[in-house]
Amino acid sequence: MRTTKRFTPTVLARFFKIGRGTGTFENYIPWHRVGRSDPSSCGRSHLQMWHGRQRELLSDGEWVGLFFAVSMKNLVDLTEQFPLSLEDGQHEMAAHRADTPPSRHPGTLEIAKRLGYKHPKTNEKGLSSEWVMTTDFILVLRTPANKLELLAVAFKPSADLKKKRTKELLNIEREYWLARGVTWLLITPELFDQRVALRLRDTMPWALGGVVPERDLSIANAVTHELQGHSLTYILEQLTARFGDDDHAKRTFWQSVWCGKIPLDLRRGWRPHLPVTLLSAAEFLSLNPIAGRRSSWI
């Protein structure tokens, strides 16, 4: 049976010692992890494989948020449970760009003081240390000008926003990223259609399965546009006949959908006999709150 663990100064010191919150791509180590050695989260946790590393997600909101994020064509890297610096320091882009100019940006201690908020602490047997705040996701995106930019994303249930302390902590987090010129989004369930979230969860095994060749995505795109209005069952049968493999056909179709080549209306029901309806590129993009840069108010 898993015993209940608490965050203490000793636990935080261990996180620093083993390099939590450092690295990039498959070498990144999240500050908080889903495992027996870490205190458990309040929500339901998930482990999701993506790009050579298990992503450690502490809530259903983060799990769905990962699906929205990885469907963005300009996503370069994603780091979850990212620790915010207590003291002033270098810009976080320095981990991804060696030519990032030297600069100093305020840490959470300075920001909390400026806002008039009490900075969170953790205590243990007379010892006290400053709590290390985190941002759920940091996305590294490639801009149309072929440059890299960061996007910080937090996920919260709407009920949590009624708590004064939660609002204070989110304000510290937001100001931390604004001081660095980084857009910060607060994603709540009201910002997206729950039917879309269900379709992403249902189709995730094929969308995040073995990557299919680009030429096959183009074939699926052409076949689906030609057969728009037919049932999903019929379209998948035609793709299976073309590729000779049912699983490959499903992976090709859903990977094409997730990357936007097939702008499927994801609000459709789950039943495969329902007709396939396609949207415009702009309408399809609007289904994704992260790609659309939507954010809730604190």
UniProtKB/TrEMBL annotation:
Coiled-coil region(s): none
InterPro entries for this protein: Restrct_endonuc-II-like, TnsA_N, tRNA_endonuc-like_dom_sf
Entry-linked Pfam families: Tn7_TnsA-like_N
Keywords, ordered alphabetically: Endonuclease, Hydrolase, Nuclease
GO molecular function: endonuclease activity; nucleic acid binding
Domain TnsA endonuclease N-terminal: 108-188
Gene3D superfamilies: 3.40.1350.10
UniProt protein name: TnsA endonuclease
Organism listed in the record: Gallionella capsiferriformans (strain ES-2) (Gallionella ferruginea capsiferriformans (strain ES-2))
